[in-house]
C-alpha cells in the first residue's frame, strides 16, 4: 500500500511541509539528514514527536520536510508541528494523538501569535513612544 500523507506546520514566519511515506525511517529536512541538522537544540525539538511515537512507528516511515522562512527556532517548531500532525494522520491512532496533547499541545495545535508591526514615532519599536518634554 503506497499511502502518502502531506502535513504542514507554521510558527511565526516559518512554514514547514512534511511528506510521509512508507519506508525505512529516513528523515530529511531540506534534503539534509536529521542527524546532520544543526543547532542541536533544534534537532532535539524536531525529534520530540518521533520519540513519543516510538520506534515501531517511525522505523516504517520516511519523512521529507521542506522548511522556509523565519529563523532556525521557528523552523524547528514548524517542522515539529508538521511531523506530529503527519504521524497522527498516517497512523490514524487516537492514542498517539492523546499522547501528543498530554505531552505538549503545541505538537498538534499551531501557535498563531505573530510579531507586532512597528509604528511611527517609536524609535523603530512596536510600542515604546518618543519622549516629549514641554518644559
Question: Could you please describe the fold and organization of this structure?
Answer:
By secondary structure, the chain is an alpha+beta fold. The chain has one domain (5-107): Ribosomal Protein S5, domain 2 (2-Layer Sandwich), CATH 3.30.230.10. It has helices spanning 40-53, 55-58, 72-91, 94-103, and strands at 5-11, 14-22, 27-29, 32-33, 61-68. A 5-stranded mixed beta sheet has the order 1-2-5-3-4. A hairpin with a 2-residue loop joins β3 and β4 (32-33). The longest helix is centred in the middle third of the chain and has 20 residues, at 72-91. The model has no long low-confidence stretch (mean pLDDT 91).
Structural class call reads: alpha+beta
CATH class placement: Alpha Beta
Largest sheet: 5 strands, mixed
CATH topology: Ribosomal Protein S5, domain 2
Distance between the termini: 79 Å
> If you average the pLDDT, what whole number results?
91
CATH architecture: 2-Layer Sandwich
Shape: elongated
Amino acid at each position: 500500500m503506497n499511502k502518502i500523507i502531506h502535513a504542514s506546520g507554521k510558527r511565526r514566519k516559518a512554514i514547514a511541509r512534511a511528506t510521509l511515506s512508507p519506508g525505512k525511517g529516513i528523515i530529511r529536512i531540506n534534503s539534509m539528514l536529521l542527524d546532520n541538522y544543526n543547532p542541536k537544540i533544534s534537532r532535539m525539538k524536531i525529534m520530540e514527536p518521533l520519540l513519543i511515537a516510538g520506534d515501531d512507528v517511525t522505523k516504517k516511515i520516511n519523512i521529507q520536510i521542506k522548511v522556509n522562512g523565519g529563523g532556525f527556532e521557528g523552523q524547528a517548531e514548524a517542522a515539529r508541528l508538521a511531523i506530529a500532525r503527519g504521524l497522527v494522520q498516517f497512523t490514524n491512532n487516537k492514542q498517539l494523538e492523546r499522547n501528543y496533547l498530554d505531552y505538549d499541545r503545541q505538537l498538534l495545535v499551531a501557535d498563531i501569535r505573530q510579531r507586532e508591526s512597528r509604528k511611527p514615532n517609536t524609535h523603530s519599536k512596536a510600542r515604546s513612544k518618543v519622549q516629549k518634554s514641554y518644559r
